[in-house]
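quick one
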Amino acid sequence: MEPIIKLSDVYAGYTPNKAVLKQVSLDVYPNDFIGIIGPNGGGKSTLLKVILGLLQPFSGTIEYYNQQDYTKVNLGYLPQLNNNDKSFPIKVIDVVLSGLMGKKGMIKSYTSSEKEQARQLLSFVKLDNYANSAIGALSGGQMQRVYLCRAIINSPKVLILDEPNNFVDKQFETELYDLLKELNKKMAILLVSHDVGIISAFIKTIACVNETLHYHKTNKISEEMLKTYHCPIELIAHGHVPHRVLHNH
Ligand SMILES: Nc1ncnc2c1ncn2[C@@H]1O[C@H](COP(=O)(O)OP(=O)(O)OP(=O)(O)O)[C@@H](O)[C@H]1O
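structure w/ adenosine-5'-triphosphate:
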């Protein structure tokens, strides 16, 4: 089977001669569900930017379906939420529909079947009653669900999520992962998360990013394994659920 995305020996960063990512190689296959973990500042978001084509590597290659042009691969992206999103004057359903722009370009109107599809997705994440609300009126968790709908409305081959559970209400957290499991039947998923304990029940493999990338063909994480690869974690307990979190560097 051919990988959908193939990174080979990638060096990337923001200032010349100061690589944040070094010697990174990774193959992403159609049914993958990869948990991307690592310490703060280790380079997880930078890796996503490289994969999304937002940051050109200093050296190394990134190939999509054996093509050089990333726009030919349909990628869905759920970015980290930031506070600016709150002041953006746009209706919830239009946020979801804006996920079609990559396919349609800057268009003025959407078809009724596209609107229906957007409504179905909102119903999928239990926000059917908010379709016509302003996005700024929603809680952080609700906004994340809307952005998830936007990321998947174009049926991407790869769904990329950056800390989706940062703002998600506890009540929706399990539902979010169940939803991702369902989506994984149709698309590869790359998930950056600090919640290693929780995601390990859903992910299939692990990429530990700490300047370099170490890929583990398992969803079981041992401290020894991560220590070996300089990706420190520790076990703590939140309530009744044992949890692994990453040290701050
Ligand atoms: N736009 C930028 N310009 C310059 N340096 C940056 C920029 N974005 C990130 N960095 C630096 O690159 C390094 C890696 O950052 P990155 O955000 O990729 O890490 P991360 O693993 O996603 O961290 P976190 O878990 O805190 O989100 C850090 O040292 C960070 O300060």
